[in-house]
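Writing this down once: the sequence line spells out the residues, with the fold written below as integer tokens. This is how one looks:
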Amino acid sequence: EKHVFRYDIKKFYESIHPEYIYRKIISDPAISPTNKSLVRMYLKAIEDSDISGVGRGTSLSAALAEYYLLEFDKAVRRIDGVYYYARFVDDIIIFSYKKNEHFKEAVQFQLPCGMILHDRKDKMSELSFIDSTELNFNYLGYKFTANKKKLIKLDLSDNKVNKIKSRLVKIFLDYGKNNDEKLLITRIKYLTGNRLVKLKNGISYTVGLHSSYRHINPDISDGLLEIDKFYKKIIFSKSFRVNKITPFSKLSKRGVNFIKNVSFLSSYKSKPYYYFSNINRVKRCWSNE
């Protein structure tokens, strides 16, 4: 038998106590005095700014969070029956060959003081693969379909599909307010395409529909088909609310041709790359997600 447990840590960065983590760092002989001093300066700046935890969006906050959970990661791997464990920031996935009715409590017990696991159904799942029955679970934007013997299919997760649908609605509603055709097309390219991200330290990586979900087989993807059907409703269905209030008649001929020929499935296969000069402006209409 195989048992899969997926959990999510609630308010991850905000629940890390700055003073507690600083005491851990101070007592760690592997960390240099200079680095200890820099961490103290950073944590004081966070505290003075009235920010909870260790802050978000900086490389140091991410490093501190990983350091904070080092012992937790080791402890979960030692739980009886666990043969695979992974954590990406606050998303946890665990494979075990033993069924434990109180497994969540065992994982929660290992978390540092102040951290708790989500109780929401969309933030956790506990599945037992005991025969040929196909079951689904989501992790990091993917939907896994499997039975006891094998992984059957990888697709976009339901949450990811719904997020793209939501962004499409917001894109067209915002176009209805600003009539900015160029911005509309740019935002659709952002959702369907890929882009190169370059960091100041010289590291670069790609993100986007294909780059971020490269393990999907597009020929059997229900997620991509579902998004395309939804997109066509926006464009062609006169009974669809978004279609009714979107001023498609104001589009240029070039704009109409582009809008009508958009396909998430085709874009996934062709893997187009785009350059965006102002990412913040592109993402502004869905920035409150």
